[in-house]
Every structure is written in structure tokens, then in C-alpha cells.
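Dock CA2; give full complex structure.
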Amino acid sequence: MSGAETRKIMLIHGPNLNLLGKREPEIYGADTLADVEGWCRVAGEDAGVAVDCRQSNHEGEIVTWIHEARDTAAAIVINAGAYTHTSIAIHDALRAFEGVIVELHISNPHLRESFRHISHIGPTATAQVAGFGVKAYPKVIGAVARMLG
Ligand code: CA2
């Protein structure tokens, strides 16, 4: 990673999270993904880090972005959506990323169906946050910025 990117965080959202604020507000809240990404960019500006926001419904695209982050970002904040519980490919890609990794969930998967209790992201993560709703995102960006120093 070059010096220019030592203060960049890649924020990755997985499948269906483009629907935030448009369905199931009782679980995920009424704010949209654009709202959340906007708060994170502002939190990044306040903390002196750039936040590179991505969302994909395709596992391979997320894997490719994690590879890209090896050269462009000092940290990854990832809500992999349902791929959290299924994707060895995302697990393996994260294993090859040497920076800070934060696994973030809006809900607390442990309070939900048993198939959400396994995380393949967790064993790769520096830190995990779950159950605080979407308001956790800008807090996490600030915390990661402080970790980066
Ligand atoms: O709580 C989270 O952040 C989750 O990562 C959300 C995933 C779910 O599969 C995980 O178990 C926990 C689901 C994302 C679906 O997002 C939607 C948002 C609005 C409307 C419909 C789906």
C-alpha cells in the first residue's frame, strides 16, 4: 500500500443492503444506504480519512474489491449481508488483507435465526459491531480512523 492510501477506509456492503430504508424498517431502520454512506464520508472527513463506499449483490465482485483494497486501503469495514454466513471466498479474501478489518451488522444476528449465528467474517476481523442499528456506522468510521493513528 502506498503512503497516499494509508488513511483510506473501504466500506463494503453486501447483498440486499441497497434496499436499506425501502423494506423491513422494523429490522434495519428507515435510513437509506445513501444516507449511511453520506454519514460515513462526513465522519471520515472529520477524522481525516477518506471513505470509499461500495455495495454489491455479487460475491465475486466483493472478493475483487477486497483484493483491490490490499493496494488502496488501510482498513475495510464490511457488512457482508447474508454472505457473512455462507462465503468462504470472502473469508479467504479478507485473510489476504493485512490492514484493519471491522465486521459490522445493523441487527444482532445472534438474536435471529440459527443460520445467522455463524460468521465466516468474524475469524478474520480485528473488531465486530452488531445490534446498534445504522447509527453505528459513523461511530465505527471514527473508531477505525483513531486505530489508524
Ligand atoms: O444485520 C445486518 O446488518 C445483516 O448483515 C443484514 C443481512 C442479514 O442477512 C444478516 O444476517 C445481518 C441482510 C441484509 C438485507 O438488507 C435488507 C435491507 C432492507 C430491506 C431488505 C433487506
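Observed: The longest strand covers residues 8-13.
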